[in-house]
């Protein structure tokens, strides 16, 4: 491949470097992956209005979220197991995000713990929370996030149970494999010696860093995945959001909202922001795409809370589309993981620089020199 020019190019580099199991984990969705595909297809169907003879000589891509100035309307989304894609990937991504002037969000089930990311950065990063059955563990993690001066708590609410992900099942993640299948998996890993050295040798320890004292003996990806199926709490309700709100004093963002009534309830219960999201097509495969429900949710609560969106964002042009339909910023997950898997910290930085160039180009061609000038007027139809 020549010099990578797009997120799709970094995806291809990641595919070449990662064992199939690892690539499929980050690249795949649930069931037949219809929602995963819809996230991309519905974005691409949105036409932008090209406008001419506007003064776009001074483009400004900066914005603000929760009192924090961002150089771009982009946030790195939380991605579980990211540290299995590249050595200490969460730290590498956090450093790249800080250099780009945007927030990084650390997953509860990331490989690197809160404290390691805090030591590697000088600006506040965000922390993502899953509700676990053991509320004592949850409270302790929230306290650690507060002690690390995390800039926001992102409470993911669309995972009461783990989605049915056929690619992961076929690859043997979380299931007991017969000997022949285990040998095939080992051969696949062995075919990627660069990944083995980077992650398996230099990237250790490969544990849930934030849950090191909780997930005891989980020394394989399958064991860690099995733990998530037993530890996540399917009984979580709005009362639990009230409880989280009572102990977390910073900005609280609810991630995984696709319904206007849920969005209104989130605002009423104390959420400072919501992320319109279907978990990247990894949960309910019959769910609508994020971009298709964004306008209704933004209209319902956009004047009362900060509305973000994720799902299918692969370019600065996609960011323009989402901003035009009501999002204040976009979260990107797979895009930054492709970058870190392909080229580490430099890869994440390159992905962000690519998306920044694309955003600037899109802003110029729709005649919007500032982020707050991107609105419905730049969308056709």
Commentary on this structure:
The protein has 381 residues and is an alpha/beta fold. It has a domain of 264 residues: TIM Barrel. It contains 15 helices and ten strands. The strands form two sheets. The chain has an eight-stranded parallel β-sheet. A two-stranded antiparallel ribbon has the order 1-2. Helix 12 links the parallel strand 7 and strand 8. The two termini are 38 Å apart.
Oligomer: single chain
The assigned structural class equals alpha/beta
Query: What's the name of the CATH homologous superfamily of one domain?
Result: Aldolase class I
Strand order of the largest sheet: 3-10-9-8-7-6-5-4
Number of strand segments? 10
Order of helices and strands: HHHEEEHEHEHEHHHHHEHEHEHEH
CATH architecture of one domain: Alpha-Beta Barrel
CATH fold name of one domain, please? TIM Barrel
Pick out its properties.
381 residues; alpha/beta; TIM Barrel; 8-stranded parallel beta sheet; two-stranded antiparallel ribbon; 15 helices; 10 strands; globular
Please sum up the structure shown.
With 381 residues, the protein is an alpha/beta fold.
Give the secondary structure arrangement, pairings included:
Layout: H1 7-17, H2 20-27, H3 34-44, E1 63-65, E2 68-70, E3 74-76, H4 89-100, E4 105-106, H5 114-120, E5 126-129, H6 135-147, E6 153-156, H7 166-170, H8 179-190, H9 193-201, H10 221-231, H11 238-247, E7 252-257, H12 260-269, E8 273-276, H13 290-301, E9 306-309, H14 316-324, E10 329-332, H15 334-365
Parallel strand pairs: 3-10, 4-5, 5-6, 6-7, 7-8, 8-9, 9-10
Antiparallel strand pairs: 1-2
């Amino acid at each position: 491949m020549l010099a990578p020019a797009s997120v799709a190019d970094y995806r291809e580099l990641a595919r070449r470097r990662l064992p199939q199991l690892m690539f499929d984990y980050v690249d795949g969705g649930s069931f037949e992956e219809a929602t995963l595909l819809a996230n991309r297809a519905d974005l691409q169907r949105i036409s932008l209005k090209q406008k001419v003879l506007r003064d776009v000589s001074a483009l400004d891509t900066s914005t603000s979220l929760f009192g924090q100035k961002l150089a771009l309307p982009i946030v790195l989304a939380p991605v579980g197991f990211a540290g299995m894609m590249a050595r200490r990937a969460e730290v590498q991504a956090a450093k790249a995000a800080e250099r780009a002037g945007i927030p990084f969000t650390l997953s509860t089930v990331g490989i690197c713990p809160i404290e390691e990311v805090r030591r590697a950065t000088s600006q506040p990063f965000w922390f993502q929370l899953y509700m676990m059955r053991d509320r004592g563990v949850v409270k302790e993690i929230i306290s650690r996030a507060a002690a690390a001066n995390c800039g926001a708590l992102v409470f993911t609410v669309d995972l009461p149970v783990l989605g049915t992900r056929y690619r992961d099942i076929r690859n043997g993640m979380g299931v007991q494999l017969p000997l022949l299948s285990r040998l095939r998996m080992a051969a696949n890993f062995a075919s990627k010696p660069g990944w083995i050295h980077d992650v398996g040798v230099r990237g250790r320890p490969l544990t849930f860093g934030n849950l090191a004292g909780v997930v005891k003996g989980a020394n394989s990806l399958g064991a860690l995945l099995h733990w998530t199926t037993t530890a996540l709490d399917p009984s979580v309700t709005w009362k639990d959001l009230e409880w989280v709100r009572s102990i977390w004093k910073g900005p609280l963002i609810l991630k995984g909202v696709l319904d206007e009534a849920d969005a209104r309830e989130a605002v009423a219960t104390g959420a400072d922001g919501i992320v319109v999201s279907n978990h990247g097509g990894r949960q309910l495969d019959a769910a609508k795409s994020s971009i298709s429900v964004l306008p209704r949710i933004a209209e319902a609560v956009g004047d009362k809370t900060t509305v973000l969106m994720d799902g299918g964002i692969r370019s600065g042009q996609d960011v323009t589309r989402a901003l035009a339909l009501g999002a204040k910023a976009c979260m990107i997950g797979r895009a930054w993981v492709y970058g870190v898997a392909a080229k580490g910290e430099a890869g994440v930085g390159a992905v962000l620089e690519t998306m920044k160039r694309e955003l600037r180009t899109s802003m110029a061609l729709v005649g919007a020199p500032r982020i707050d000038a991107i609105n419905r007027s730049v969308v056709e139809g």
